[in-house]
Amino acid sequence: MNTIEADVLDLPEAVTGRTHDVVLCHNLLQCMDDPEPALRSAAALVRSGGILSVMAINRHATPLGLAVRSLDPAAALAALAALGGRTTHGVTFDAELTLYTAEEIIALLGESGCVDIEHCGIRSVSDHITDDARKHDPEFFADLEALELALTDRHPYPHTAKIFQLTARVE
């Protein structure tokens, strides 16, 4: 097995012209104003019948996080009203991020030749637990992990999870 790390919009020659069983496009889209070229490029690398996995911050989760985690219902209401405005400030890298919904990305994946698209949610509950120290308790963490796994593909939780994951087969 080979692993290649590369800029999806500036792929080295060693990557192009190859077909890969799996291509991961994780935590990239929020750094792009237009995800379509990256998704098209990533899908083009996957062999017929292979898998493309996409993970990104879920725009639908923003109001819920502000209301529950930050205890700021006014900010949550403002974020809900501004869901058409797609940006947020990312603290980790001190950068503006563009947020998308799984539905938007599913449509783009379909246009890129992807089929059998599955939608899962990641961090449906854990981001809303404000007692971060409790997450270090092994028993609590095991219960939290079991809950997260049970919610990952159960409606409506993928739509409100902090991160969405889409897996698709490329024709």
What keyword list fits this structure?
single chain; four-stranded mixed beta sheet; 6 strands; about 170 residues; Rossmann fold; alpha+beta; globular
SSE layout and pairing:
Layout: E1 20-26, H1 36-44, E2 46-57, H2 61-68, H3 73-81, E3 87-90, E4 95-98, H4 102-111, E5 114-122, H5 138-151, H6 157-160, E6 163-170
Parallel strand pairs: 1-2
Antiparallel strand pairs: 2-6, 3-4, 5-6
Helix pairs in contact: 1-4, 2-3
Structure overview:
The chain is 32% helix and 26% strand. The chain is an alpha+beta fold and 171 residues long. It has one domain: Vaccinia Virus protein VP39 (Rossmann fold). The chain is globular. The mean pLDDT is 90.
Q: SSE order, as H and E?
A: EHEHHEEHEHHE
> Percent of residues in beta strands?
25-35%
Terminal CA distance: 22 Å
Total beta strand runs? 6
Any guess at the CATH architecture?
Answer: 3-Layer(aba) Sandwich
Number of helices: 6
Give the C-level CATH assignment. Answer: Alpha Beta
**Would you give the CATH topology?**
Rossmann fold
Low-confidence stretches: none
Helices and strands: which structural class? alpha+beta
The neighbouring-strand order within the major sheet is: 1-2-6-5
Would you identify the CATH H-level superfamily? Vaccinia Virus protein VP39
Please give the radius of gyration in angstroms: 17 Å
Percent helix range: 25-40%
Q: Describe the biggest sheet?
A: 4 strands, mixed
What form results from the Cα inertia axes?
globular
Number of domains: 1
Whole-number average pLDDT? Answer: 90
